[in-house]
Amino acid sequence: MPPNQPVAHRVAPMLHRENAGASRRPVRIVHLGLGNFFRAHAAWYTERADPCGEWGIAGFTGRTVDAAEVLTAQDDLYTLVERGPLSDHYSVIGALSLTRDGTDQHALSDSVASAATVIITATITEAGYVPADIDPQGVPARLAIALAARKNAGGGPLAVVSCDNLPRNGEVLRQAIVAGQSEELTAWIATNVSFVSTSVDRITPRATKQDVEEVRRSQGYVDRAPVITEPYSAWVLSGAFPAGRPRWEDAGAIFVEDLDGYVLRKLWLLNGAHSLLAYAGRLRGHSTVSGAIQDQIVRSWVEEFWRTGAALLPDPTDAVHYTVELQARFSNPRIVHKLDQIATDGVIKLRTRILPMIVAADAAGLATSSLLRVICSWIADVMSDQTSVPDAEEHAIRDAARCEDSIAALLALVDPWLGGDRRRVDECRQILRDLGSAGRDPELDKLDG
User: Do the beta carbons of residue 1 and residue 10 sit within 8 Å?
Assistant: First the structure.
Protein backbone atom coordinates (compact mmCIF):
# COMPACT_ATOMS: atom_id res chain seq x y z
CA MET A 1 0.00 0.00 0.00
CA PRO A 2 1.41 3.41 -0.90
CA PRO A 3 2.60 5.15 2.27
CA ASN A 4 0.90 8.41 1.32
CA GLN A 5 -2.54 6.82 0.91
CA PRO A 6 -5.07 8.55 3.23
CA VAL A 7 -5.88 6.56 6.37
CA ALA A 8 -9.60 6.67 5.64
CA HIS A 9 -9.00 4.79 2.37
CA ARG A 10 -6.63 2.14 3.64
CA VAL A 11 -8.01 -1.38 3.93
CA ALA A 12 -8.21 -2.17 7.65
CA PRO A 13 -6.94 -5.63 8.67
CA MET A 14 -9.24 -8.16 10.29
CA LEU A 15 -8.85 -8.51 14.04
CA HIS A 16 -6.66 -11.55 14.76
CA ARG A 17 -4.29 -12.77 17.46
CA GLU A 18 -1.08 -11.76 15.76
CA ASN A 19 -1.98 -8.09 15.46
CA ALA A 20 -3.62 -8.08 18.91
CA GLY A 21 -0.72 -9.84 20.65
CA ALA A 22 -3.14 -12.32 22.28
CA SER A 23 -2.14 -15.96 22.66
CA ARG A 24 -4.69 -18.74 23.09
CA ARG A 25 -5.24 -19.94 26.63
CA PRO A 26 -5.72 -23.56 27.66
CA VAL A 27 -9.42 -24.41 27.81
CA ARG A 28 -10.61 -24.92 31.38
CA ILE A 29 -14.10 -23.43 31.08
CA VAL A 30 -16.91 -24.52 28.74
CA HIS A 31 -19.63 -21.98 28.08
CA LEU A 32 -23.11 -22.38 26.54
CA GLY A 33 -24.78 -19.31 25.01
CA LEU A 34 -22.27 -17.25 23.04
CA GLY A 35 -24.26 -14.03 23.02
CA ASN A 36 -23.30 -10.45 23.73
CA PHE A 37 -24.13 -10.55 27.42
CA PHE A 38 -21.75 -13.43 28.16
CA ARG A 39 -18.99 -11.68 26.22
CA ALA A 40 -19.62 -8.42 28.13
CA HIS A 41 -19.83 -10.15 31.48
CA ALA A 42 -18.36 -13.55 32.43
CA ALA A 43 -15.77 -13.56 29.61
CA TRP A 44 -14.78 -10.00 30.55
CA TYR A 45 -14.40 -10.96 34.21
CA THR A 46 -12.28 -13.95 33.21
CA GLU A 47 -10.07 -11.78 31.00
CA ARG A 48 -9.46 -9.31 33.83
CA ALA A 49 -8.92 -12.02 36.47
CA ASP A 50 -6.42 -14.04 34.42
CA PRO A 51 -3.30 -11.98 33.73
CA CYS A 52 -1.17 -15.11 33.28
CA GLY A 53 -3.46 -16.60 30.62
CA GLU A 54 -4.35 -19.81 32.45
CA TRP A 55 -8.15 -19.86 31.94
CA GLY A 56 -9.35 -20.28 28.35
CA ILE A 57 -13.02 -20.65 27.44
CA ALA A 58 -14.53 -22.98 24.86
CA GLY A 59 -17.67 -21.11 23.80
CA PHE A 60 -20.65 -22.91 22.29
CA THR A 61 -23.61 -21.13 20.75
CA GLY A 62 -27.04 -21.60 22.25
CA ARG A 63 -29.44 -21.21 19.32
CA THR A 64 -27.64 -20.57 16.03
CA VAL A 65 -24.13 -21.09 14.75
CA ASP A 66 -23.73 -17.49 13.52
CA ALA A 67 -21.74 -16.10 16.45
CA ALA A 68 -19.30 -19.01 16.37
CA GLU A 69 -18.66 -18.60 12.65
CA VAL A 70 -17.97 -14.86 12.94
CA LEU A 71 -15.73 -15.25 15.98
CA THR A 72 -13.80 -18.20 14.53
CA ALA A 73 -12.98 -16.09 11.47
CA GLN A 74 -11.23 -13.54 13.71
CA ASP A 75 -9.33 -15.95 15.95
CA ASP A 76 -12.12 -15.89 18.60
CA LEU A 77 -11.22 -12.32 19.55
CA TYR A 78 -13.63 -9.41 19.88
CA THR A 79 -13.65 -5.81 21.00
CA LEU A 80 -15.51 -4.80 24.15
CA VAL A 81 -16.69 -1.18 24.00
CA GLU A 82 -17.61 0.26 27.40
CA ARG A 83 -19.86 3.13 26.41
CA GLY A 84 -20.11 5.89 28.99
CA PRO A 85 -22.28 9.01 28.69
CA LEU A 86 -19.33 10.97 27.28
CA SER A 87 -16.72 8.57 25.91
CA ASP A 88 -15.84 4.96 25.05
CA HIS A 89 -13.21 2.59 26.40
CA TYR A 90 -12.02 -0.16 24.03
CA SER A 91 -10.42 -3.48 24.96
CA VAL A 92 -9.71 -6.67 23.02
CA ILE A 93 -10.94 -9.75 24.86
CA GLY A 94 -8.91 -12.92 24.36
CA ALA A 95 -10.47 -15.24 26.97
CA LEU A 96 -12.27 -17.25 24.29
CA SER A 97 -9.94 -19.97 23.05
CA LEU A 98 -12.35 -21.59 20.63
CA THR A 99 -15.96 -21.15 19.52
CA ARG A 100 -18.26 -23.86 18.21
CA ASP A 101 -21.81 -24.61 17.15
CA GLY A 102 -23.71 -25.57 20.30
CA THR A 103 -25.65 -28.27 18.45
CA ASP A 104 -22.40 -30.12 17.72
CA GLN A 105 -22.96 -32.60 20.51
CA HIS A 106 -19.76 -34.50 19.85
CA ALA A 107 -17.60 -31.38 20.26
CA LEU A 108 -19.53 -30.26 23.34
CA SER A 109 -19.26 -33.67 24.99
CA ASP A 110 -15.54 -33.86 24.25
CA SER A 111 -14.97 -30.44 25.79
CA VAL A 112 -16.98 -31.23 28.93
CA ALA A 113 -15.36 -34.66 29.28
CA SER A 114 -11.85 -33.21 29.06
CA ALA A 115 -9.90 -33.53 32.30
CA ALA A 116 -8.78 -29.91 31.89
CA THR A 117 -12.35 -28.60 32.07
CA VAL A 118 -13.39 -27.67 35.60
CA ILE A 119 -16.21 -25.15 35.04
CA ILE A 120 -19.30 -24.94 32.81
CA THR A 121 -21.07 -21.59 32.53
CA ALA A 122 -24.36 -20.82 30.81
CA THR A 123 -26.24 -17.77 29.51
CA ILE A 124 -29.22 -19.30 27.73
CA THR A 125 -31.98 -16.77 28.70
CA GLU A 126 -34.94 -17.54 30.93
CA ALA A 127 -36.65 -19.43 28.13
CA GLY A 128 -33.72 -21.84 27.80
CA TYR A 129 -34.31 -23.75 31.04
CA VAL A 130 -36.61 -26.37 29.55
CA PRO A 131 -36.21 -29.74 31.34
CA ALA A 132 -34.09 -32.24 29.43
CA ASP A 133 -36.92 -34.79 29.22
CA ILE A 134 -39.23 -32.22 27.58
CA ASP A 135 -36.85 -30.73 24.99
CA PRO A 136 -34.15 -33.20 23.90
CA GLN A 137 -32.57 -30.49 21.72
CA GLY A 138 -32.40 -27.86 24.48
CA VAL A 139 -29.29 -26.81 26.38
CA PRO A 140 -30.13 -28.78 29.58
CA ALA A 141 -30.51 -31.96 27.52
CA ARG A 142 -27.25 -31.30 25.68
CA LEU A 143 -25.48 -30.71 28.97
CA ALA A 144 -26.91 -33.95 30.39
CA ILE A 145 -25.39 -35.87 27.46
CA ALA A 146 -22.07 -34.04 27.90
CA LEU A 147 -21.97 -34.77 31.65
CA ALA A 148 -22.69 -38.43 30.91
CA ALA A 149 -19.66 -38.40 28.59
CA ARG A 150 -17.54 -36.95 31.41
CA LYS A 151 -18.79 -39.62 33.79
CA ASN A 152 -18.00 -42.38 31.29
CA ALA A 153 -14.52 -40.92 30.75
CA GLY A 154 -13.82 -41.05 34.49
CA GLY A 155 -13.78 -37.27 34.73
CA GLY A 156 -13.41 -35.47 38.03
CA PRO A 157 -15.66 -32.93 39.74
CA LEU A 158 -16.59 -29.59 38.24
CA ALA A 159 -18.89 -26.60 38.82
CA VAL A 160 -21.84 -25.55 36.65
CA VAL A 161 -22.56 -21.82 36.85
CA SER A 162 -25.83 -20.29 35.65
CA CYS A 163 -25.68 -16.62 34.62
CA ASP A 164 -29.31 -15.98 33.70
CA ASN A 165 -31.98 -13.80 35.31
CA LEU A 166 -33.68 -16.44 37.43
CA PRO A 167 -33.84 -16.76 41.22
CA ARG A 168 -31.61 -19.63 42.42
CA ASN A 169 -30.65 -20.19 38.80
CA GLY A 170 -28.08 -22.86 39.64
CA GLU A 171 -30.73 -25.06 41.20
CA VAL A 172 -33.11 -24.38 38.31
CA LEU A 173 -30.42 -25.52 35.87
CA ARG A 174 -29.66 -28.62 37.95
CA GLN A 175 -33.29 -29.68 37.93
CA ALA A 176 -33.56 -29.08 34.19
CA ILE A 177 -30.45 -31.19 33.49
CA VAL A 178 -31.33 -34.21 35.66
CA ALA A 179 -34.98 -34.35 34.52
CA GLY A 180 -35.56 -37.80 33.01
CA GLN A 181 -31.96 -38.98 33.47
CA SER A 182 -31.00 -42.41 34.76
CA GLU A 183 -30.51 -42.99 38.46
CA GLU A 184 -26.85 -43.73 37.78
CA LEU A 185 -26.18 -40.41 36.01
CA THR A 186 -28.26 -38.45 38.53
CA ALA A 187 -26.27 -39.96 41.39
CA TRP A 188 -22.96 -39.18 39.67
CA ILE A 189 -24.03 -35.57 39.12
CA ALA A 190 -25.07 -35.26 42.77
CA THR A 191 -21.62 -36.44 43.88
CA ASN A 192 -19.41 -34.72 41.31
CA VAL A 193 -21.13 -31.57 40.06
CA SER A 194 -21.79 -28.41 42.06
CA PHE A 195 -24.35 -25.91 40.80
CA VAL A 196 -23.48 -22.28 41.45
CA SER A 197 -26.16 -19.58 41.52
CA THR A 198 -25.35 -16.03 40.49
CA SER A 199 -26.73 -12.52 40.14
CA VAL A 200 -25.53 -10.86 36.93
CA ASP A 201 -25.84 -7.18 36.11
CA ARG A 202 -24.63 -5.32 33.04
CA ILE A 203 -26.76 -3.65 30.38
CA THR A 204 -25.66 -4.92 26.97
CA PRO A 205 -27.60 -3.90 23.85
CA ARG A 206 -27.13 -5.47 20.46
CA ALA A 207 -24.27 -4.10 18.39
CA THR A 208 -25.12 -2.40 15.10
CA LYS A 209 -23.38 -1.91 11.76
CA GLN A 210 -22.60 1.59 12.96
CA ASP A 211 -20.77 0.11 15.97
CA VAL A 212 -18.72 -2.13 13.67
CA GLU A 213 -17.76 0.91 11.59
CA GLU A 214 -16.89 2.95 14.69
CA VAL A 215 -14.52 0.22 15.90
CA ARG A 216 -12.85 0.12 12.46
CA ARG A 217 -12.51 3.89 12.36
CA SER A 218 -11.20 4.35 15.90
CA GLN A 219 -9.15 1.17 16.36
CA GLY A 220 -7.87 0.57 12.83
CA TYR A 221 -9.06 -3.02 12.39
CA VAL A 222 -12.24 -4.82 11.35
CA ASP A 223 -14.19 -6.58 14.10
CA ARG A 224 -17.49 -8.06 12.94
CA ALA A 225 -18.48 -9.10 16.47
CA PRO A 226 -17.90 -6.13 18.80
CA VAL A 227 -19.82 -5.95 22.07
CA ILE A 228 -21.28 -2.68 23.31
CA THR A 229 -21.91 -2.40 27.05
CA GLU A 230 -22.14 0.10 29.87
CA PRO A 231 -19.25 0.86 32.28
CA TYR A 232 -21.22 -0.58 35.23
CA SER A 233 -20.90 -4.29 35.99
CA ALA A 234 -21.73 -6.55 38.94
CA TRP A 235 -21.44 -10.30 39.49
CA VAL A 236 -22.40 -12.03 42.73
CA LEU A 237 -21.87 -15.81 43.07
CA SER A 238 -22.84 -18.43 45.64
CA GLY A 239 -21.66 -22.03 45.53
CA ALA A 240 -18.65 -24.33 45.47
CA PHE A 241 -15.96 -24.75 42.83
CA PRO A 242 -14.56 -28.21 43.64
CA ALA A 243 -11.77 -28.10 41.03
CA GLY A 244 -10.83 -24.43 41.22
CA ARG A 245 -11.76 -21.22 39.40
CA PRO A 246 -10.28 -17.93 38.18
CA ARG A 247 -9.85 -15.24 40.83
CA TRP A 248 -12.93 -13.40 39.57
CA GLU A 249 -12.95 -11.36 42.77
CA ASP A 250 -9.83 -9.61 41.48
CA ALA A 251 -12.04 -8.25 38.69
CA GLY A 252 -14.76 -7.15 41.10
CA ALA A 253 -16.94 -10.25 41.52
CA ILE A 254 -18.41 -10.92 44.97
CA PHE A 255 -18.78 -14.36 46.60
CA VAL A 256 -21.49 -14.76 49.23
CA GLU A 257 -23.29 -17.44 51.21
CA ASP A 258 -26.77 -15.91 50.82
CA LEU A 259 -27.50 -14.67 47.30
CA ASP A 260 -31.26 -14.12 47.47
CA GLY A 261 -31.22 -10.41 48.35
CA TYR A 262 -28.85 -9.58 45.48
CA VAL A 263 -30.90 -11.60 43.01
CA LEU A 264 -34.23 -10.07 43.96
CA ARG A 265 -32.84 -6.53 43.95
CA LYS A 266 -31.55 -6.91 40.42
CA LEU A 267 -34.40 -9.06 39.08
CA TRP A 268 -37.16 -6.87 40.48
CA LEU A 269 -35.73 -3.37 40.26
CA LEU A 270 -33.68 -3.56 37.04
CA ASN A 271 -35.29 -6.36 35.04
CA GLY A 272 -38.81 -5.56 36.26
CA ALA A 273 -38.36 -1.91 35.34
CA HIS A 274 -36.95 -2.97 31.98
CA SER A 275 -40.16 -4.90 31.26
CA LEU A 276 -42.26 -1.87 32.20
CA LEU A 277 -40.13 0.37 30.00
CA ALA A 278 -40.32 -2.11 27.13
CA TYR A 279 -44.10 -2.38 26.96
CA ALA A 280 -45.18 1.03 28.25
CA GLY A 281 -42.42 2.67 26.23
CA ARG A 282 -43.50 0.95 23.02
CA LEU A 283 -47.09 2.04 23.68
CA ARG A 284 -45.88 5.63 24.07
CA GLY A 285 -43.98 5.49 20.80
CA HIS A 286 -40.44 4.95 22.06
CA SER A 287 -37.85 2.54 20.73
CA THR A 288 -35.05 2.76 23.33
CA VAL A 289 -34.65 2.61 27.10
CA SER A 290 -32.99 6.04 27.26
CA GLY A 291 -35.86 7.57 25.30
CA ALA A 292 -38.57 5.90 27.38
CA ILE A 293 -37.06 6.87 30.76
CA GLN A 294 -36.98 10.52 29.67
CA ASP A 295 -40.73 10.42 29.02
CA GLN A 296 -42.23 12.03 32.14
CA ILE A 297 -45.28 9.74 32.19
CA VAL A 298 -43.28 6.53 31.74
CA ARG A 299 -40.70 7.67 34.28
CA SER A 300 -43.42 8.33 36.85
CA TRP A 301 -44.68 4.77 36.35
CA VAL A 302 -41.15 3.40 36.76
CA GLU A 303 -40.58 5.44 39.92
CA GLU A 304 -43.86 4.21 41.42
CA PHE A 305 -42.86 0.64 40.51
CA TRP A 306 -39.47 1.16 42.18
CA ARG A 307 -41.04 2.48 45.39
CA THR A 308 -43.14 -0.65 45.70
CA GLY A 309 -40.24 -2.94 44.79
CA ALA A 310 -37.85 -1.26 47.23
CA ALA A 311 -40.36 -1.71 50.06
CA LEU A 312 -40.45 -5.46 49.37
CA LEU A 313 -36.68 -5.96 49.63
CA PRO A 314 -34.75 -6.75 52.84
CA ASP A 315 -32.79 -3.47 52.79
CA PRO A 316 -35.01 -0.67 51.39
CA THR A 317 -32.25 1.94 51.88
CA ASP A 318 -29.84 -0.01 49.69
CA ALA A 319 -32.64 -0.61 47.19
CA VAL A 320 -33.36 3.11 46.93
CA HIS A 321 -29.66 3.82 46.29
CA TYR A 322 -29.69 1.14 43.60
CA THR A 323 -32.67 2.75 41.83
CA VAL A 324 -30.86 6.10 41.77
CA GLU A 325 -27.99 4.34 39.99
CA LEU A 326 -30.46 2.62 37.66
CA GLN A 327 -32.05 5.88 36.57
CA ALA A 328 -28.63 7.20 35.58
CA ARG A 329 -27.79 3.95 33.78
CA PHE A 330 -31.11 3.89 31.92
CA SER A 331 -30.66 7.53 30.92
CA ASN A 332 -27.28 7.01 29.21
CA PRO A 333 -28.18 8.17 25.67
CA ARG A 334 -25.15 6.45 24.14
CA ILE A 335 -26.38 2.99 25.18
CA VAL A 336 -28.93 2.30 22.45
CA HIS A 337 -30.86 -0.46 24.22
CA LYS A 338 -33.81 -1.35 22.01
CA LEU A 339 -37.15 -1.94 23.71
CA ASP A 340 -37.94 -4.67 21.16
CA GLN A 341 -34.96 -6.65 22.46
CA ILE A 342 -36.17 -6.42 26.07
CA ALA A 343 -39.78 -7.20 25.11
CA THR A 344 -39.00 -10.69 23.76
CA ASP A 345 -40.29 -13.74 25.67
CA GLY A 346 -42.57 -11.54 27.75
CA VAL A 347 -44.64 -14.29 29.37
CA ILE A 348 -41.79 -16.08 31.11
CA LYS A 349 -40.18 -12.77 32.09
CA LEU A 350 -43.42 -11.57 33.70
CA ARG A 351 -43.68 -14.86 35.58
CA THR A 352 -40.17 -14.60 37.00
CA ARG A 353 -39.92 -10.82 37.47
CA ILE A 354 -43.39 -9.48 38.29
CA LEU A 355 -45.55 -12.33 39.60
CA PRO A 356 -43.35 -12.97 42.70
CA MET A 357 -43.47 -9.23 43.46
CA ILE A 358 -47.27 -9.31 43.42
CA VAL A 359 -47.29 -12.31 45.77
CA ALA A 360 -44.83 -10.57 48.12
CA ALA A 361 -46.83 -7.32 48.04
CA ASP A 362 -50.03 -9.18 48.90
CA ALA A 363 -48.28 -10.84 51.83
CA ALA A 364 -47.01 -7.45 53.03
CA GLY A 365 -50.39 -5.76 52.60
CA LEU A 366 -49.08 -3.36 49.93
CA ALA A 367 -50.98 -2.08 46.89
CA THR A 368 -50.10 -3.89 43.68
CA SER A 369 -51.33 -1.44 41.04
CA SER A 370 -47.79 -0.32 40.10
CA LEU A 371 -46.83 -3.98 39.59
CA LEU A 372 -49.97 -4.90 37.68
CA ARG A 373 -49.26 -1.97 35.37
CA VAL A 374 -46.28 -3.92 33.98
CA ILE A 375 -48.50 -6.88 33.06
CA CYS A 376 -51.20 -4.56 31.74
CA SER A 377 -48.65 -2.76 29.57
CA TRP A 378 -47.74 -6.14 28.11
CA ILE A 379 -51.43 -6.93 27.52
CA ALA A 380 -51.93 -3.56 25.81
CA ASP A 381 -48.83 -4.22 23.71
CA VAL A 382 -50.14 -7.65 22.71
CA MET A 383 -53.55 -6.22 21.78
CA SER A 384 -52.15 -3.23 19.89
CA ASP A 385 -51.36 -2.99 16.20
CA GLN A 386 -47.63 -2.73 16.88
CA THR A 387 -45.11 -5.14 15.41
CA SER A 388 -45.07 -8.21 17.63
CA VAL A 389 -41.89 -9.42 19.30
CA PRO A 390 -40.76 -13.06 19.51
CA ASP A 391 -42.14 -15.10 22.40
CA ALA A 392 -41.68 -18.78 23.20
CA GLU A 393 -45.42 -18.90 24.02
CA GLU A 394 -46.57 -17.07 20.91
CA HIS A 395 -49.36 -19.53 20.05
CA ALA A 396 -50.81 -19.45 23.56
CA ILE A 397 -50.71 -15.64 23.49
CA ARG A 398 -52.65 -15.56 20.22
CA ASP A 399 -55.27 -17.97 21.56
CA ALA A 400 -55.70 -15.95 24.77
CA ALA A 401 -55.97 -12.68 22.83
CA ARG A 402 -58.88 -14.14 20.81
CA CYS A 403 -60.88 -15.12 23.91
CA GLU A 404 -64.10 -13.28 24.74
CA ASP A 405 -62.49 -12.00 27.93
CA SER A 406 -58.99 -11.53 26.54
CA ILE A 407 -57.77 -9.62 29.60
CA ALA A 408 -58.60 -12.48 31.95
CA ALA A 409 -57.18 -15.02 29.50
CA LEU A 410 -53.88 -13.18 29.10
CA LEU A 411 -53.59 -12.72 32.87
CA ALA A 412 -54.22 -16.46 33.26
CA LEU A 413 -51.42 -17.15 30.79
CA VAL A 414 -49.02 -15.38 33.15
CA ASP A 415 -50.58 -17.28 36.05
CA PRO A 416 -54.02 -18.97 36.40
CA TRP A 417 -54.39 -17.37 39.84
CA LEU A 418 -54.27 -13.90 38.31
CA GLY A 419 -56.80 -14.70 35.60
CA GLY A 420 -59.17 -16.25 38.13
CA ASP A 421 -59.16 -13.32 40.54
CA ARG A 422 -62.14 -11.20 39.39
CA ARG A 423 -61.17 -8.25 41.60
CA ARG A 424 -57.72 -8.20 40.05
CA VAL A 425 -59.07 -8.62 36.52
CA ASP A 426 -61.33 -5.61 37.09
CA GLU A 427 -58.38 -3.64 38.48
CA CYS A 428 -56.44 -4.47 35.32
CA ARG A 429 -59.34 -3.26 33.18
CA GLN A 430 -59.07 0.13 34.88
CA ILE A 431 -55.28 0.21 34.52
CA LEU A 432 -55.65 -0.58 30.82
CA ARG A 433 -58.14 2.29 30.45
CA ASP A 434 -55.63 4.58 32.14
CA LEU A 435 -52.87 3.36 29.83
CA GLY A 436 -55.10 4.09 26.86
CA SER A 437 -55.90 7.58 28.08
CA ALA A 438 -52.15 8.27 28.43
CA GLY A 439 -52.03 7.96 24.67
CA ARG A 440 -49.09 7.90 22.33
CA ASP A 441 -47.35 11.22 21.86
CA PRO A 442 -45.49 11.38 18.52
CA GLU A 443 -43.70 14.50 19.76
CA LEU A 444 -41.77 12.25 22.15
CA ASP A 445 -39.98 10.42 19.31
CA LYS A 446 -37.10 12.88 19.56
CA LEU A 447 -36.23 11.45 23.00
CA ASP A 448 -35.03 8.27 21.31
CA GLY A 449 -32.52 10.15 19.20
Answer: yes
DSSP element (H, E) containing 433: helix 422-438
Classify 85 as helix, strand or coil.
coil
3-state secondary structure 204-267: CCCCCHHHHHHHHHHHCCECCCCEEECCCCEEEEECCCCCCCCCHHHHCCEECCCCHHHHHHHH
One-letter amino acid of 173: L
Rg (CA), the chain: 23
pLDDT tens track for 109-157: 999 999 999 999 999 999 999 999 999 999 999 999 999 999 999 999 9
The answer to whether the beta carbons of residues 31 and 120 sit under 8 Å apart is yes
CATH fold for domain 261-448: N-(1-d-carboxylethyl)-l-norvaline Dehydrogenase; domain 2 (1.10.1040)
Measure the CA–CA gap between 218 and 81, rounded to whole angstroms: 11
Closest CA to 32 of 14, 53, 57: 57
- Could you give the CA distance from residue 422 to residue 46 in angstroms, rounded to a whole number? 50
Q: H/E element holding 125?
A: none
Amino acid at 39: R
231 contact partners, CB below 8 Å, separation of at least 6: 82, 83, 84, 89
Which among 173, 174, 120, 137 is positioned nearest to 63, based on CA atoms? 137
Query: Residue ranges per domain, the chain?
Result: 7-258, 261-448
Beta-carbon-side half-sphere exposure of residue 256 (alpha carbons within 13 Å): 14
pTM flag (> 0.85): yes
Which one of 3.40.50.880, 3.40.50.800, 3.40.50.720, 2.60.40.420 gives the CATH number of domain 7-258?
3.40.50.720
